[in-house]
Amino acid sequence: MNRARIQELIEQRMAQRKGLYQVTLEDATHFTLNGHPYILKENYRGAFDGERLADRFSPLLTKYDYIVGDWGYDQLRLKGFYAHTKSSAEDQSITCIKDYLMEECNFGCPYFIIQNLEVIQPKKSRRSRMRRRGRTEINEEKRGLKEPIINHHRNREIHRVKGKGNHSKMVVRKRRDS
Q1: 109 and 157, same structural domain?
Q2: CB–CB of 16/8 below 8 Å?
Q3: Do 97 and 113 contact (CB within 8 A), yes or no?
Q4: Nearest-CA neighbor of 78 among 48, 102, 44?
């Protein structure tokens, strides 16, 4: 891929994201982003720009208590941090914001810190819960297949059959008309 094609794809992606999120300023420090309230805690060198924040925002950031936005090479970069009360990785704690600004950001770059007032916790998937449990518990929960499960879909049958070891697989076969 050449640079022109890459730049074209970047511009296309930016056009798709445009208008996805809206920032509504309530006063100098309070604003809402798609209805979720935030507080502007720090605005170093006037870095906060609601319109550019809305263009770069991702729903993944709603799980963090604090979001730091820093500018480098005319690009806004966003990173989330948890409050003290959250059990999280050391480098994602609010106490590490100053370290992040000193080590990861350009020297003297404009930045802002916003606080999320309505943190949305992501739902835990079944797979992540199973990873946390020990392997012995998982093995105890496994059940063998008693009979193949047959689902009819138009002129096909889907069979669940026993594979190698404890694995099962789905086999799609054309239905025989009787």
Answers
A1: no
A2: no
A3: yes
A4: 48
Q: In degrees, to the nearest 5, what angle opens at C-alpha 65 toward C-alphas 60 and 66?
A: 90
Count: domains in the chain: 2
In a domain, 22, yes or no: yes
CATH code at 49? 3.50.4.20
The 10s digit of each residue's pLDDT in 25-51 is: 999 999 999 899 999 999 999 999 999
Domain for residue 76, yes or no?
A: yes
The predicted pLDDT at position 10 comes to: 86
Question: Is residue 29 helix, strand or coil?
Answer: coil
* Contact call for residues 168 and 151 (beta carbons, < 8 A): no
User: Is the pTM value of this prediction over 0.70?
Assistant: no
Beta bridge mates, 23: 33
| Token duo for residue 9 | 């794809």
Same-domain check for residues 38 and 94: yes
In a shared domain, residues 65 and 153: no
Residue with tokens 């990861």: 104
- pLDDT, averaged across the chain: 81
pLDDT band, residue 139 (cuts 50/70/90): very low
Nearest 5°: CA angle at 65, between 64 and 71?
A: 75
